[in-house]
Amino acid sequence: MKITIKNQNFVLHQSGAAFWEEEKILFISDLHLGKIGHFRKHGMAIPEKAILENFARLNVVLDLFDSETIIFLGDLFHSKINKEWNFFSEWTKIHSQKIILIEGNHDIISKQYYLDLNIEVSQELIIHDFLLTHHPSEREKLFNFCGHIHPGIKLKGMGRQFLSLSCFFRKPNQMIFPAFGEFTGNFYIIPEENDQIYAITKEEVIEIKR
Questions:
Q1: CB 68 within 8 A of CB 24
Q2: Three-class secondary structure of residue 69 per DSSP
Q3: The whole model's pTM is what?
Q4: Could you list the residue ranges that cross the membrane (predicted)?
Q5: What is the pLDDT of residues 87-114, one digit of tens each?
Q6: How many other C-beta atoms are found inside a 10 Å radius of the C-beta of residue 85?
């Protein structure tokens, strides 16, 4: 799905990523690498091959879009370093895009690890009229791209049927990105009058009309 914000064009992808066409920037939020390894360490029966799923999904969106820069909107790595860091380190070496991390609350790994991989780290970033943060923020005259919330929407069907989907949650001056990573969970929102919901299905992103 393509949307326009402040005369700029963005493609919303069903992975939860978004591509800024004019600037050739790929936005990804809340990947939470290392979370699966953390769960496995504490006895949860998650197959080890699930660790590679995040990287497979990353590769899919990189193949789709002609990006020059990847900006992670926080919570790139879930907690302390585990062996998933080695996968990430190798993944960065086979891609030529510039990588920027906007620090999230889970990003507790020393910045030096990222700098060693030529990844820029920042608390926030302003590009033209867009404010990039991890936590939802407001700044006069700027449109905020952020994550952190892991937004989702519950849709009611006939009878007692409900469908729960991740979504891009757009307010008048802000868009909160869905979590890209596996096993991250959702926070189900209740949209207000001027909010727009772009729900994610397996095949596409669809705007939910109310």
A1: yes
A2: strand
A3: 0.91
A4: none
A5: 899 999 999 999 999 999 878 888 899 9
A6: 17
